[in-house]
Amino acid sequence: MPPPHDLRCPVNPFRVNDYTGICDRCGAKVWLSDLSWQEEFAGFGLINLNLLVCRDCLDIPNESLKAIIIGPDSVPPRWPRPYNYAQQNAGGTAAPTNVREFLFDGDDPG
C-alpha cells in the first residue's frame, strides 16, 4: 500500500521540472521555486542565513543592523595660531583686547 498523500502538498501537472520543498521556518510544503533565501544585514552588506523560507515567513532585513558610516572630519584651518596661555600664566604678554589691532598690527585695512 502506498504512503498516504499529504493534502498540503502542492500538485500541478504543468510544473514538471519544479519540485516541492519545505520551508525552514514553518515547515509548509511549497514549490521549491517559491522558496527564497533569508538574508540579514551584517557589517556593510547582506549575508545569507542559509534558510529557505516561503513568502509568508520571509523577513525584510533590519536596517538598524547596518554598519554606521561616519563621514570624514572637517578640514582644519591652514595655519592655526592658538593663543599661548602658558606664556600668559608665566607673566608674559597679556591677551589682546582689540582683535582688529592684534590681527592687522595697528594698520586699519579699510
List the main descriptive attributes of the protein structure presented here.
110 residues, alpha+beta, two-stranded antiparallel ribbon, two-stranded antiparallel sheet, 2 helices, 4 strands, rod-shaped
Q: What does this molecule look like?
A:
- The protein is of the alpha+beta class.
- The chain has a domain at 1-63.
- Helix content is 10%, strand content 20%.
- It contains two helices and four strands.
- The strands form two sheets. A two-stranded antiparallel sheet has the order 1-2. Strands 3-4 form a two-stranded antiparallel sheet.
- The longest helix has 6 residues, at 99-104.
- The protein is rod-shaped, with a radius of gyration of 35 Å.
Quick description:
The protein has about 110 residues and is of the alpha+beta class. About 10% of the residues lie in helices and about 20% in strands.
Strand order of the largest sheet: 1-2
Class computed from helices, strands and strand pairing: alpha+beta
**Helix content class:** 10-25%
From N to C, what is the helix and strand string?
Answer: EEEEHH
Instruction: Give the overall shape, derived from the CA principal axes.
Output: rod-shaped
Write the layout of secondary structure elements.
Layout: E1 20-22, E2 29-31, E3 36-42, E4 45-53, H1 85-89, H2 99-104
Antiparallel strand pairs: 1-2, 3-4
